[in-house]
Amino acid sequence: MADSKDQKSLSQKLSDYVSFVAKQPKGFVYREERTKTAAPKQAATKTKKQGLEELFCKYVDCQACPLATQGRTQVVFGNGNASTRLMFIGEGPGKDEDEQGLPFIGRAGQLLTKIIEAMDMKREDVYISNVVKCRPPGNRVPLPIESNTCKNLLLFKEIDIIKPQIICTLGATATQAVLGDDVKITKARGMFFSFKGIPVIPTYHPAYLLRNPAEKKTVWEDMKKIMEKFKELSV
Ligand code: SF4
To answer: Which pLDDT value is given to residue 11?
Structure first.
């Protein structure tokens, strides 16, 4: 008898609920659906790729520094494997990068790809970004206001999301943006520093190597140090 009474009461409750829903205004959301969309666990499981996509979405039409109005075609975000162990950082997009919306795809980028492959990796294994995401006119060096604004809005957040095991800065602009203005590329090249606990090794920019091919050997020595460091880190 108790079961039948409970069932009757359940059926009555259901009927009451259906008529309650029918009286609600358009757009009423059933309680279980609200619970699903508001679940805090979803934020905790966000992938690094999703984190980068969310970050970039905010700055697709960034106007935060003078480079926004100096002839850029588009904002060129970092690109590559969000779960990488190795992140390269260059200076800023050039003409090809500005046109195609990807970093390091011109001649210097092709040389960087060869260097990565000589390290027994593929380009898709690493992540490549720049200090400024918009092309400086005539490929000039970014001004301090441009570098400082962009690195704080984007580059440092990319590093926070990716958390690479090693960062390799390419050239003076990237080295100083990450390690400070008093660090000179000629002295710091090939040495390990630290940024937020991540080992950082500066080396020459591939564009410099195109003008000074004799320095390719020097850069290769630096890449060997990166490979050695990976071995140390995986012990
Ligand atoms: S360089 Fe960076 S901060 Fe400046 S407008 Fe482009 S995305 Fe924004």
So the answer is: 52
What is the whole-number distance in angstroms between the Cα of residue 64 and the centre of ligand 1? 6
Distance 153 CA to ligand 1 centre (A): 8
Contact 208, 106 (CB under 8 A): no
> Maximum distance among all alpha carbons in the chain?
94
Amino acid at 61: D
Residue carrying structure tokens 């490979």: 227
Q: Is the CB of 75 under 6 A from ligand 1?
A: yes
CATH number at residue 79: 3.40.470.10
Structure confidence at residue 235 as a pLDDT band (50, 70, 90): confident
At 19 the pLDDT is 57
**Residue 10 belongs to a domain:** no
Q: Does residue 147 lie within any of the structural domains?
A: yes
- Structurally, the chain folds into a number of domains equal to 1
Note down the domain range covering 74.
62-234
How confident is the model over 63-91, as pLDDT tens digits? 999 999 999 999 999 999 999 999 999 99
159 lies in a domain?
A: yes
Note whether residue 47 is domain-resident. no
